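Hi there,

I know you've been waiting on this one. I reran it after we fixed the sequence typo, so this is the corrected version. Both the input and the resulting structure follow.
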Amino acid sequence: MNYQQFASDLPISGTDIVTSPEELEERMRGLGVNHYVRQLSRRQFRGDLAALSTEQADFAADRYSTASVFRLESPPEKVCLLFPRSAGEPIRALGTEVTRRNLVLLPAASGIDLWGPNLAGSEAIVISQERFVELIGVLWPDVQPPEVAVVVEGDPTSLDTIRGKVLEILAHPECVPDQGFVSNVFATVFDWLDEGLGYGESDRLPDARSCRRVAERAQAYIETHYRESIRLQDLCLAAEVSARTLQRCFRHCFDLSVTEYLKAVRFDAARRALAATHSAEQSVAQIALDHGFTHLGRFSVEFKQRFGIPAYSLLAERRPASAATTGIG
């Protein structure tokens, strides 16, 4: 694999190219991150960097052509979740080989040295320390957040899903992710951390009645608030349990994740609204927005995949009675 192939998954628009370690360090300082680079191999340095800052989190992805040592320091009030990747030799950190099975958790005001081979890179999510502590408190009330960098190992398929979500956000900077979408990304990350760090409860589910009660509380909250931006902690508070228990009870009762169920409710409600509306009254875009969807392109694609017909066709099938009788249109 050459460098062009390795970096081809970065978005074409909005990706900066740097040609020296100093240029990369300056670019990272502009994002509020101390990132020191020492080049190891004798070849032209090349780096590609895409980044997007939102109110809820910062998202970034980078690719490098040249073997280097990287010193990464998290800002004083930010926590960095780093998802390293390489095309061949593994990255090394804290005396550990870091592969696509690993996440590097970098608490606020902490640092880590990473050795990267030729063709290495990462995806990253940076959130505020306050938000991180809040999530830890909701998900794992008895756990103290780590104070030093840790390398966590777990299911690589789930990590690839998170990487994909970060790249999707970076590919569409014009569509700033809504609170619900980012909350779902966080939920996926923290669920993965739960498995890797063993923060959650034991493998034993609550008894059947308690499990059903938890799932039904979350279901009722979704049915009432699906038009709004729903965060994982909102559901945890409604169900009065941690995220781990909520997810397991919900899947046990409905054979769906909370996110899958929320999406199904929104799509069903949007389909019913489309079928009850003609194009002179409302647009597909407005109906999608009214039912909790903020990425209209993704809504159209997923609607057709789910129901086998494009969303606009439901509006087109319903014409005003006057038009049908007079032959207009």
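Quick highlight: The first strand starts at residue 15 and ends at 18.

Best,
R. S.
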